[in-house]
Amino acid sequence: MNMLDYTQHLPQWLGALLSEKFFNACIIHEDAKKNEKNVFCLDCCEGLCPRCLNTHRSHRLLQIRRYVYHDVIRLGDANKLLDCGFVQSYITNSAKVIFLNQRPQMRASRYSGNCCIICDRGLQDPFLFCSVSCKVQHILKTEGELTKYIYRCTYMTLPEPGLDDGQMTPDTILEPVGSTRSESGSSGGEVGCRAVLCTAATEIVRKKRSTLSAFRSVFRPACGPGSGMNRRKGTPQRSPLY
Questions:
Q1: Which of 35, 66, 153, 176 would you label with 110, given CA atoms 20 to 30 Å apart?
Q2: Which phi-psi region, left, alpha or beta, contains residue 122 (left: φ > 0; alpha: ψ -120 to 50)?
Q3: Alpha carbon separation from 12 to 18, 29, 45, 103, 202 (Å, rounded)
């Protein structure tokens, strides 16, 4: 079953969400900066860029993110919209996310452990699906409809401006040790924590440099006239030959 076939049997918002090409340039704001579509309007069933948001502020808005170059949504957001049980989740920036669509594989999977029921991608136990689309396809194949798996969601909002732009980087690169960022991607003490860490590191470097300079000034030999550093080497003395 291809994408076009099974999306015709989905609720309008879900079909549009799974078929939308996110992180492409917005046609309406094609010449503007930061015009990538990284938000989905559940009421209008279309992808939005940051410059489109003013006319959709009262609508239900879903933040789309990127993880290993593919579209993901936060698991907490997804659970408000549909049953995501047994869909493999991943953690990035301290938030659990799931893939919207299955990812292409270069070759047939030879994974001998747990695999996705639809695309055979290797998974951790006890997961059965690698993405939302794979679970949806399986349900349509086995049950014919999604009614009992779709939830009624009357409110969906975006994170606070500046805290999450949809682009995600693995926490092993950016997150400081001991960070308390929550699943929503924000924490009140994160900015302050980073500032304190940077200030402390700067002070440590300064102290080390000043201490090292003092150490060198005490033990560095004088280089003026008459000092040992200014003497010329004499003729080398060789051992006599017998």
A1: 66
A2: beta
A3: 10, 25, 7, 23, 54
| Angstrom distances, CA of residue 104 to CA of 58, 68, 83, 107, 130 | 36, 12, 24, 9, 11
Residue ranges of the chain with pLDDT lower than 70? Answer: 1-5, 108-112, 161-240, 242
Q: Six-digit token pair at 136? A: 């949806």
Spatial separation of the C-alpha atoms in residues 225 and 230, rounded to whole Å = 7
φ and ψ of 115, to 5 deg: -130, 160
CA atoms of 58 and 36, how far apart (whole Å): 21
Question: Measured between alpha carbons, how far is residue 27 from residues 38, 48, 62 in Å?
Answer: 13, 10, 19
> 96 with 78: CB under 8 angstroms?
no
Tell me how far apart the alpha carbons of residues 163 and 108 are, in angstroms, rounded to a whole number.
Answer: 39
pLDDT of residue 142: 95
Amino acid (one-letter) located at 106: M
Q: Is residue 39 classed as helix, strand or coil in its secondary structure? A: strand
DSSP assignment letter at 172:
H
The total number of residues written for the chain in this structure: 242
C-alpha distances (whole Å) from 205 to each of 85, 198, 212, 214, 220 are 50, 11, 10, 14, 22
pLDDT digits (tens, 9 = 90+) for 50-81: 999 999 999 999 999 999 999 999 999 999 99
Residues 84-96 pLDDT 10s = 999 999 998 889 9
